[in-house]
Amino acid sequence: EKCQFCLPSVTYLGHVVSAEGVSTDPRKLEAVASWPRPRNVTELRSFLGFCSYYRRFVGGFAKIAQPLNKLLQKETTEEGCKVSDKNPSAPGPRKARESIQGEWTSQCEGAFVKLKESLTRAPVLAYADPHKPYELHVDASREGLGGVLYQEYGGLLRPVAYVSRSLAPSEKNYPTHKLEFLALKWAVVDKLKDYLYGAEFVIKTDNNPLTYILTTAKLDATGHRWLAALSGFRFSLKYRPGVNNRDADALSRRPYTTEWTQLTPDGVQALCQGTERRVKGGIEAEAIGVMAAAVPEFYCNPTQLRDESLPTFSRQDLKADQARDPLIALTIKALSANQ
């Protein structure tokens, strides 16, 4: 009675595992379809906790649930400070508000209904096949980060996993290019590393997330960490208009051409591994070597982009070059003669 063999499908921990893939358990989702509107914070936490268990089946989960999560954030900010042992007369914690009926807006109702619909219509996720190429769609907006990992089965792309999250307060101040680069790093390194590490794959996104590297004169420590993390992966990059990237939780964006622009794996590796430190002749220099294949045509300048790192010069090299320069040589001669 404890074992069953040769079954077409098996129910395990709220999931149905079959030959087609992994899907949600219909019996569990019956509760979602009839879930009443939350009246207080406790009921809202219960609903969001249940939905979060199946968030891998819902594209753009963080964006959909954002209005409901804001109600919980208000709950956190209304809690008072803890009473200090050194100052017993300090005011204690205020009673946190419980009812949310007065703050339930049309956006909250829309998010509540859409979450229920998304779960009851959740797709069957395909099994990840390490012998098949992966295709990752990522996107970033002021409302959060999102990504969808695909593999091709029978000539069709089938989702393997959905990932999404909201932005931290500090991340909401990032410029657009840095936010796109964050989405790329977060999806590849933080969420889908178990699938993508050691495999070659294609990333499709709107705009070019590597623009942050190309347009930033000097990367900060965070940028260097992101580059170092991405350098262990091998992938090609294709970017397209955001209006055609809706599966990755994209916002509506202005129209562009629908043609793809591609960066090869070698080009991406050149950018990720191009930042290095060299010590030569007692002078420490930071050189960024960028391959021309890594940069779109409108960025390319053949006189500036080469396949090797930019050269560094020692004090002896600089001294010899100054001696050969006709103008600097006259200045040196005048200084030597105290003129």
The best one-word shape is elongated
CATH top level of the largest domain?
A: Alpha Beta
Order of helices and strands: EEEHHHHHEEEHHEHHEEHEEHH
In total, the number of domains comes to 3
- How are the strands of the biggest sheet laid out side by side? 6-5-4-7-8-9
How does the helix and strand content classify structurally?
alpha+beta
CATH architecture of the largest domain, by name, is Roll
Radius of gyration: 27 Å
CATH topology name of the largest domain: Ubiquitin-like (UB roll)
Average per-residue pLDDT, rounded, comes to 74
Count of helical regions: 12
End-to-end CA span: 104 Å
Protein name: Reverse transcriptase/retrotransposon-derived protein RNase H-like domain-containing protein
Region (Disordered): 79-100
Domain Reverse transcriptase/retrotransposon-derived protein RNase H-like: 104-203
InterPro entries: DNA/RNA_pol_sf (IPR043502), Rev_trsase/Diguanyl_cyclase (IPR043128), RT_RNaseH_2 (IPR041577)
Q: Could you explain how this protein is built, in words?
A:
With about 350 residues, the protein is an alpha+beta fold. About 35% of the residues lie in helices and about 20% in strands. The chain is built from twelve helices and eleven strands. The protein has helices at about 25-35, 40-55, 60-65, 65-75, 105-120, 175-190, 195, 210-215, 220-230, 265-275, 315-325, 325-335; strands at about 10, 15-20, 20-25, 135-140, 145-155, 155-165, 200-205, 235-240, 260-265, 275-280, 285-290. The protein has a six-stranded mixed β-sheet. It has a three-stranded antiparallel β-sheet with strand order 1-2-3. Helix 1 (about 25-35) packs antiparallel against helix 5 (about 105-120) and helix 6 packs across helix 9 (about 220-230).
